[in-house]
Amino acid sequence: MFGLIKTWKALEAKGIMGINRRNADYVLKYNRRHLYPIVDDKIITKERAIEAGIHVPEMYGIITTEKEIERLDEIIGGRNDFVIKPAQGAGGDGIMVIADRFEGRFKTVSGKIISHEEIEHQISSILTGLYSLGGHRDRALIEYRVTPDPIFKSISYEGVPDIRIIVLMGYPVMAMLRLPTRQSNGKANLHQGAIGVGVDLATGVTLKGTWLNAKITKHPDTTNAVDGVQLPNWNGFMKLAAGCYELCGLGYIGVDMVLDEDKGPLILELNARPGLNIQIANDCGLTLRTHAVEARLAELQEQGVVETAEERVRFAQELFGHVHPAEI
């Protein structure tokens, strides 16, 4: 028991945030319950983002009832690739990624050949709430399939890598790149076996990674180093993440973004209860950073000042970056 207490005190000294602290001091404190539907429903998130002029993957259509499944061909038209998602899904469950057609059938991103009927069955399962938060009836979203920027080819296995940035009251506090693996079936979800790689907030250069809660330096499938990669348009990602505070009104969120080969940075979804593995990926605790932001907010409140998204990004990069922007 003494050893456990000693270990926990050591973690607290490093600013490691546990799930109880995250829930009590941040999720419950900064996220008003009535705003949750904005981030828990991907369709509402997408509609709000479009209204705000924020780039998201194009929405091809929505299926709400079993009868509307008949509209599938009309929605996808002659497209060879698309993505089907549960509007209220979590953790990547229920997502079907179609990469191509093959002799009257469809080919998933992993190369599996499936029939039209199998896609219809998947949509039906989504509608019943099989993948939704709380098991409630859901809607199926059919949207543009992101084509990852070529920079990820050497450090990712199939699928689409994404970037998560934790944002407190509009201030980015920590970031990581999530890389699909063979074990995660090409999905960028850590609990399914994807890799989390820390990202320097100041520069957008990747740090060391974590895979299955162990620290790593190379991708298990490509064997290429995951650290030292410069992510393109990093300031664009940071400003997008910071601006999501105004978009949804929630004070503590995880902003998930992708880098499309043609369309650039796109918002994928928002999360009101972001996980804590990002701390392992960055070899750094969240608490020291969130306390710094709260101190900043208290100081600005006394002065009667509210910072813009650009100013919030600049503050975060100067305080939390491993390399100061001026040194780049």
Rg for CA atoms: 20 Å
State the CATH architecture of the largest domain.
2-Layer Sandwich
Helix/strand/pairing category: alpha+beta
**Low-pLDDT sequence parts:** 324-328
Beta content comes to 15-25%
In CATH terms, the superfamily of the largest domain is ATP-grasp fold, B domain
CATH topology of the largest domain: D-amino Acid Aminotransferase, Chain A, domain 1
CATH top level of the largest domain? Alpha Beta
Tell how many strands the DSSP assignment holds: 13
Query: Biggest β-sheet, characterized?
Result: 7 strands, antiparallel
The run of helices and strands is HHHHEHEEEEHEEEEEEHEEHHH
Count, helices: 10
Helix residue percentage: 25-40%
Describe the strand arrangement of the main beta sheet, using strand numbers: 11-10-9-8-7-12-13
The span between the termini is 46 Å
Mean pLDDT: 90
What's this, in brief?
The chain is of the alpha+beta class. Helices cover 32% and strands 23% of the residues.
What would your notes on this structure say?
This is Alpha-L-glutamate ligase-like protein. It comes from Pseudomonas mangiferae. Keywords: ATP-binding, Ligase, Manganese, Nucleotide-binding. One of its GO terms (molecular function) is ribosomal S6-glutamic acid ligase activity. The chain has helices at residues 2-13, 19-30, 36-40, 42-51, 72-76, 116-127, 234-248, 278-282, 286-303, 309-320; strands at residues 59-63, 82-86, 96-102, 105-108, 113-114, 140-143, 162-168, 171-179, 195-199, 206-211, 214-216, 252-260, 264-271. Strands 11-10-9-8-7-12-13 form a seven-stranded antiparallel β-sheet. Helix 7 crosses helix 10 (309-320). The protein contains ten helices and 13 strands. The protein is α+β, with helices and mostly antiparallel strands and 328 residues long. Residues 324-328 have low confidence and may be disordered. 32% of the residues lie in helices and 23% in strands. The protein folds into two domains: 11-39 and 149-327, ATP-grasp fold, B domain (D-amino Acid Aminotransferase, Chain A, domain 1), CATH 3.30.470.20; 58-143, Dna Ligase, domain 1.
